[in-house]
Amino acid sequence: MTLPIHVVDAFTDRPFAGNPAAVCLLDREREAVWMQALAAEMNLSETAFLLPVADAWRLRWFTPKAEVALCGHATLASAHVLWETGRLAPDAPVLFDTLSGRLTAKRAAAGGGWIELDFPERRERAHPDLPELFAALGVRPVYFGKNVYDYFVEVATEREVRALAPDFAALVKLPVRGVIVTARADADTGFDFVSRFFAPGVGVPEDPVTGSAHCCLAPYWGEKLGKREMVGLQASPRGGTVKVRRMGERVILSGRAVTIVAGSLTDATT
Prior knowledge:
Layout: E1 3-10, E2 19-25, H1 32-42, E3 46-53, E4 56-62, E5 67-68, H2 72-84, E6 94-98, E7 101-107, E8 115-120, E9 125-126, H3 131-137, E10 143-146, E11 150-154, H4 158-163, H5 168-171, E12 178-184, E13 193-199, E14 204-207, H6 211-225, E15 229-234, E16 240-247, E17 250-255, E18 257-265
């Protein structure tokens, strides 16, 4: 038996940009060890596994090294695949059951290929300084915090974010999923804030575009800038755009997606 698998570039409208995710459509429950092995084989920042259950889809996310509790770009990629392959009608919302509860995706009313994800906020709180982290990043923070997943570092300028060249051997020792580094965007760029995300401890030295990080960035910059709707640029080498809208304790993440590969796993892999 073969299983459909796709590779999708998420949070971009052009190939070979944004964040690539693999999306595997399962025929039955699979062992976590099997899913982890496939994620390692794909060697992308995330591989998503979808299984239909009643009116929803069970969704799990694996990096090459670990299962994670929340992932934006692979959720976006999963919704894109379900619509593109005709498994769901173009105007039907997608319901995902995940380790972070029920998540939803829908096509934006404005069109243009934008997909909206309804995610929980993941606010940060101020954290005591960690000189070893700042040395590994090579920065002097304006603000330092931590949420349930990640450290959060604000620096003074967009230029500092773009110039980061972290010591990954030092970062991998930190007891968190990853590190968000952010700054207010330069004026007249069309963006409100910029960021980068590093997670070598779960097998992702730099994540090209990180939806879950924007669940923290949205409330932080929303309060700082006095805005409900913003546009973030993740300034990785591949780069990607994430629109955010704050809705109480939820964040609406918006992005686009492009399918790069559509194929199947052979019998030997199942």
